[in-house]
Amino acid sequence: MTAVDDLDRKPAEAVRIAVSHADDAALALAEIRRQLATARPSFIFLFVPNRLQPVELANALRMSLPNTVVFGCTTAGQITPRGYEDDALLAIAFQRRHFRVASILFEPISPVSIADVVSQTERLVSQFRATPGRKRLALIFADGLSKQEDILMAALEAGLKDIPVFGGSAGDGLRFERTQVLRNGEFHSNAALLLLLETDLPFSGLGFDHFQPTETRMVVTRAVPEERLVLEINGSPAAEEYARLVKVPVAELSPTIFAENPVLVRNRNLYHVRAIQQIHGEYGLTFLSAIDDGLLLTLGRGKEIIRTLDTGLAVSNEEGEAPDFILGFDCYLRKLEIERKGLGGEASEHFRQRRVVGFSTYGEQHFGVHVNQTFVGVAFFRPKGGVPL
Q1: What average pLDDT does the segment 337-349 reach?
Q2: Are the beta carbons of 120 and 147 closer than 8 angstroms?
Q3: 297 and 155 co-located in one domain
Q4: Residue 237: inside a domain, yes or no?
Q5: 262 with 374, same domain?
Q6: Distances in Å between the alpha carbon of 119 and those of 100, 110, 125, 154, 337?
Q7: What are the CA-CA distances from residue 128 to residues 103, 124, 199 (Å)?
Q8: DSSP 8-state code for residue 200
Q9: Peptide bond connecting 237 to the previous residue in cis, omega within 30 degrees of 0
Q10: Model pLDDT for residues 288-311, shown as the tens digit of each residue
Q11: Does 154 share its domain with 270?
């Protein structure tokens, strides 16, 4: 059986998925509970739309799921079994017989204490003893407005050593006001949640974007690194120079323009997106990743986004079988571009076929690096040997 032939099989078995569109937090969680009535979860991920208030959700959680371990975050959109959504409360229940979890909350993370993150991570790894025949991976959900993910990921990489880490930064729709992570029934800002998972499922990390470098270069000539703020590019006001290079008036700069005209940073032979969040003041540009004086930037040009999505998600195991499910962290800027081009339905169909569930992020974490405008995910496969789930 090939990965393509396997697309029409029944829904994922290692997780149970529930979705509610109710406007009331208590009603939404009651729907989630009913849909997960037959699940036996080790833990549940809850990805929250910005129309629901975290405080109300936290209060309702104590009544609806009192004896369940729940993690999650606020989002800039959700990826449900229907594909892209904006108003869905999404719950993913990880079945107990296939998953174990340990967690730690880093709070506050602005500024990050590298030594503290490394030591706490090493302690978590040592206390969460490995089970023979199972593998471990780490997931990170971070406050997407903390501006600390780059440093945090470097510290986690040191503490986790050979354990791969993936994740996404919490979102807030397109408001950019407050983003939060969920642990032990409480939402936290200025915090990051590290989850150490153990599973008997084979898994594979995914990470891809759809940009290639152009010949257009620019240099950051004045920045405020701790704020991810660029004030000058090529010696000129940042927004003016960027607008000139992408050939639009400053007044027309918008999240969509930023999404379709990203700037890239070269790391050895690889280019990573340094996404622009918004205009700051009159001519500054706020970025979603680390920025500094003297940094050389390259203007990116997009490739066909649906084709790269299809190629990136078309993963299989050694037997040629498709994943049981893919946990996905997809930059909100990708979704903006896809929807502006009228491709939302097509993208959602690819997510449905490949069994992708997750959320739209303010940034993505992939093998120790914080990136933007990237799809990051973990593809989980059924246990080797054809053992039924």
Answers
A1: 96
A2: no
A3: no
A4: yes
A5: no
A6: 22, 17, 10, 13, 40
A7: 10, 6, 13
A8: S
A9: no
A10: 999 999 999 999 998 899 999 999
A11: no
Rg over CA atoms, the chain: 20
Q: In terms of residues, how long is the chain?
A: 389
Confidence band of 387 (pLDDT split at 50, 70, 90): very low
For 10, 347, 361, the CA distances from 335, given in Å and listed in that order, are: 27, 9, 10
Instruction: Give 172's strand partners.
Output: 174
Domain region containing 245: 211-301
Which has the closest alpha carbon to 106: 153, 172, 42, 55? Answer: 153
The pTM of the full predicted model, rounded to 2 decimals, is 0.91
Task: Mark whether 160 and 63 lie in a shared domain.
Answer: yes
* Residue that the structure tokens 């969509």 belong to: 256
Helix (H, G, I), strand (E, B) or coil at 298: strand
The residues pairing with 236 across neighbouring beta strands, listed in sequence order, are 233
Its sign, for the CA torsion 59, 149, 49, 94, is negative
Question: Do 199 and 132 sit in the same domain of this protein?
Answer: yes
Element (H, E) at 105: strand 99-106
| CB of 371 closer than 8 Å to CB of 155 | no
Which residues lie closer than 8 Å to 210 by C-beta, 6 or more apart?
302, 303, 304, 305, 308, 309, 334
- Do 122 and 246 lie in one domain? The reply is no
Q: What is the pLDDT averaged over residues 130-156?
A: 95
In a domain, 97, yes or no: yes
Whether residue 54 is preceded by a cis peptide bond, meaning omega within 30 degrees of 0, is no
Among the candidates 240, 268, 301, a domain finishes at: 301
Distance CA(89)–CA(50), nearest Å, equals 10
My answer on whether 246 and 198 are in the same domain is no
262 preceded by a cis bond (ω within 30 of 0):
no
Burial class of residue 29 in the structure, from the number of CB atoms within 10 Å of its CB (0-12 exposed, 13-18 middle, 19+ buried): buried
